[in-house]
């Protein structure tokens, strides 16, 4: 899931290690597989920066918007890596990465010494294995999951967690800087994916806690708008509270991320936990978070927004949180010097409709 992450250096956009010999973003031929929210932004941003971009997705949802750009829409996924200096994948799940890159043999179609950048939040073991497979074939591969949410994505301000061969990372950084705001290098392949999955696990726990806190406030007879402002301005605040509680007030529960994908990430967290000597039942809060997310997905379906666990408690207690006149709520983000992202609330007027 895409969530805000602390900025290490909000001005220069460099990682927390010193990258040597950063090259300029010379014009390249780039292939993009996956044109969902992330892939669309990657493809359109790189095209606007002057690169030649060829893209493909089985899901044509964003094709109308891409047709308004100079992005070349391939008729087949096999056409994407032709002449590509860099191939970028932004896919929903590990099985999609495996199907495209390994089973579909897209790795075999890349030129030797080209670079594969994977933005998918995926299985870290699969990432390690596929990066090694790519290396054996003369392809340089790096993992680069993104985090931050749709508001940051639209402004090219997301944080990217990067892992893999450092030479490939250095060469890729100028391209990735085009559509991200903060670049953090975690070391060997697999490390960045683990960090991203843990971030999404934490975001899920925040959402569950926010929904329960809101219900307790409502049942206690508090004015909900005052309560929202009170938590925003207190030690109990979080990025999730500020950006997803208003979705409860709106009655949408959808931060442009499905509960199916969030459950996928929580399952990946379970794999990481068990593989590193931390039995998942010892992470009681994370285990309960996954249980509640899966219960909500079973009730409402995998296509609903990832904030639906909060709706589940509303439905269980027959106490909706929707407020009048919040339909037009939105938010923006600003950099906080030396800190994290600040959320700028675009709240509705206090006036009520007659």
From TrEMBL:
Record Pfam families: NAD_binding_11, NAD_binding_2
GO cellular component: mitochondrion
Domain 6-phosphogluconate dehydrogenase NADP-binding: 30-185
Listed InterPro entries: 6-PGluconate_DH-like_C_sf (IPR008927), 6PGD_dom2 (IPR013328), 6PGDH_NADP-bd (IPR006115), D-isomer_DH_CS1 (IPR029752), HIBADH-like_NADP-bd (IPR029154), NAD(P)-bd_dom_sf (IPR036291)
GO biological process, one term: L-valine catabolic process
3-hydroxyisobutyrate dehydrogenase-like NAD-binding domain span: 190-306
GO molecular function: 3-hydroxyisobutyrate dehydrogenase activity; NAD binding; NADP binding
Protein name (Swiss-Prot/TrEMBL): 3-hydroxyisobutyrate dehydrogenase
Organism for this UniProt entry: Exaiptasia diaphana (Tropical sea anemone)
């Amino acid at each position: 899931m895409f969530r805000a992450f602390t900025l290490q250096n909000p001005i220069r956009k460099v990682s927390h290690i010193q990258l040597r010999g950063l090259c300029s973003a010379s014009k390249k031929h780039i292939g993009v597989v996956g044109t969902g929210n992330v892939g669309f932004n990657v493809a359109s941003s790189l095209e606007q920066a002057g690169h030649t971009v060829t893209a493909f997705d089985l899901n044509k949802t964003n094709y109308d918007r891409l047709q308004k750009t100079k992005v070349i829409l391939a008729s087949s996924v096999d056409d994407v890596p032709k002449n590509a200096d860099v191939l970028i994948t932004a896919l929903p799940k590990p099985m999609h990465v495996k199907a495209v890159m390994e089973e579909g043999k897209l790795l075999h179609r890349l030129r030797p010494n080209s670079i594969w950048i994977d933005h998918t939040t995926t299985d870290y073991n699969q990432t390690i294995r596929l990066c090694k497979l790519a290396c054996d074939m003369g392809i340089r591969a790096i993992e680069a999951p993104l985090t931050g949410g749709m508001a940051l994505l639209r402004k090219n301000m997301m944080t990217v967690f990067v892992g893999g061969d450092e030479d490939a990372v250095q060469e890729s950084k100028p391209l990735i800087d085009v559509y991200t705001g903060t670049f953090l290098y975690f070391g060997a392949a697999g490390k960045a994916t683990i960090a991203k999955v843990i971030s999404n696990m934490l975001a899920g726990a925040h959402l569950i806690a926010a929904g329960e806190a809101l219900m307790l406030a409502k049942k206690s007879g508090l004015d909900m708008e005052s309560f929202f402002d009170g938590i925003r301005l207190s030690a109990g605040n979080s990025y999730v509270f500020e950006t997803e509680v208003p979705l409860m007030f709106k009655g949408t529960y959808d931060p442009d991320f499905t509960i199916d994908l969030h459950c996928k990430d929580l399952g990946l967290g379970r794999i990481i936990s068990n593989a590193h000597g931390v039995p998942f039942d010892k992470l009681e809060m994370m285990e309960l978070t996954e249980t509640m997310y899966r219960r909500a997905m079973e009730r409402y379906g995998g296509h609903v927004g990832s904030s639906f666990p909060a709706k589940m408690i509303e439905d269980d207690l027959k106490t909706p949180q929707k407020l009048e006149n919040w339909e037009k709520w939105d938010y923006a983000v600003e950099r906080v010097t030396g800190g994290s992202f600040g959320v700028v609330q675009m709240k509705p007027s206090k006036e009520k409709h007659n």
